[in-house]
Amino acid sequence: PNAILNIISNPVNSTVPICNEVYKAKGIAGASSRILGVTTLDIVRSNTFLAEECGLNVDDVDIPVIGGHAGVTILPLLSQMRPKCSLTDEKIKELTVRIQNAGTEVVEAKAGAGSATLSMAYAAARF
């Protein structure tokens, strides 16, 4: 009951609060501070897309991402990107939408025959 629980399974935005409620119902005190939704996959995608856009090595790119793990709840903080890369407002909007819809992009690329399982495994290992 005192363990830190990292949830990476989708839908993270729903699974984390459900888990918190289960812990509460079982009387496990302080659990909400130990249940984490892992959205590292959004960081990996942001770093990859911006590295491609800016002609950088992906290992050198770091973009913080806040929010959830579903569409518009994914908020890449492109202004905080390291190293800095000059982007137009239009390009920022375009990349933000691409990052927010990257999961759909993967499913469509696989023609509905799968999801980003290996990407999630990589993100989990990185976390």
Rounded to the nearest angstrom, the radius of gyration is: 16 Å
What is the count of β-strands?
4
Q: What profile does the largest beta sheet have?
A: 2 strands, parallel
Query: Secondary-structure element order, as H and E?
Result: EHEHEEHHH
**Are there runs of 5+ residues with pLDDT below 50, and where?**
none
Secondary structural class: mainly alpha
Summarize the structure in short.
The protein is mainly alpha-helical and 127 residues long. It contains five helices and four strands. Helix 2 (40-54) runs antiparallel to helix 3 and helix 2 (40-54) crosses helix 5 (117-126).
Describe this structure in words.
This protein is mainly α and 127 residues long. It is built from five helices and four strands; from the N terminus they run βαβαββααα. Strands 1-2 form a two-stranded parallel sheet. It has a two-stranded antiparallel sheet with strand order 3-4. The model has no long low-confidence stretch (mean pLDDT 90).
